[in-house]
Amino acid sequence: MHGLTIIQPWATLLATGMKRYETRGWPTRNLGQIAIHAGRRTKQAEHYIADLMMQAPDIFDAIGVEDADDLPFGCVIATGWLTGCLATDDLPVDEIEAAFGDFSPGRFAWRIDRVTRLAVP
After folding, report:
1. E strands of 1-121, at which residues?
2. For residues 7-34, b (16+ Cβ closer than 10 Å) or e, as one string?
3. CA angle 5, 3, 65 (to 5 degrees)
4. CA angle 25, 28, 34 (to 5 degrees)
């Protein structure tokens, strides 16, 4: 099984089903089952968490997160299936999904389905 390291809070949003695509600047052909690994705690992660908590606190309420200390870091938090890699140029995504990734032209959206959150990271 391959693993995919994703910075927080995006990793938890994938693990809880709030996010379906992980956007990257490169495509992949490695489809199949993956482990979703929450990256280590960094200043960049803290910045993303703080920004999203200010812009959309209801998102964190929906996944049971009160502050950054409630998020797991540096561990596998879920498994899922990487089922597609799509160019972002013409990919229709809703407003919430668009806020959770960089869907600018020339990038790629990695579709992750059948996500199962681990009871213990």
Report:
1. 2-6, 21-24, 32-38, 75-87, 108-117
2. bbbbbbbbbbebbbbbbbeeeeeeeeeb
3. 45
4. 110
pLDDT at 35: 98
Q: What is the pLDDT of residues 18-31, one digit of tens each?
A: 999 999 999 999 99
Question: For residue 55, what pLDDT band results from cuts at 50, 70 and 90?
Answer: confident
Q: What gap in Å lies between CA 66 and CA 79, rounded to an integer?
A: 24
43: CB partners within 8 A, 6+ apart: none
In this prediction, residue 64 carries a pLDDT of: 81
Residue written as tokens 């013409």?
90
Secondary structure string (H, E, C) spanning 54-78: HHCHHHHHHCCCCCHHHCCCCEEEE
**What's the whole-model pTM score?**
0.90
pLDDT at 54 over 90: no
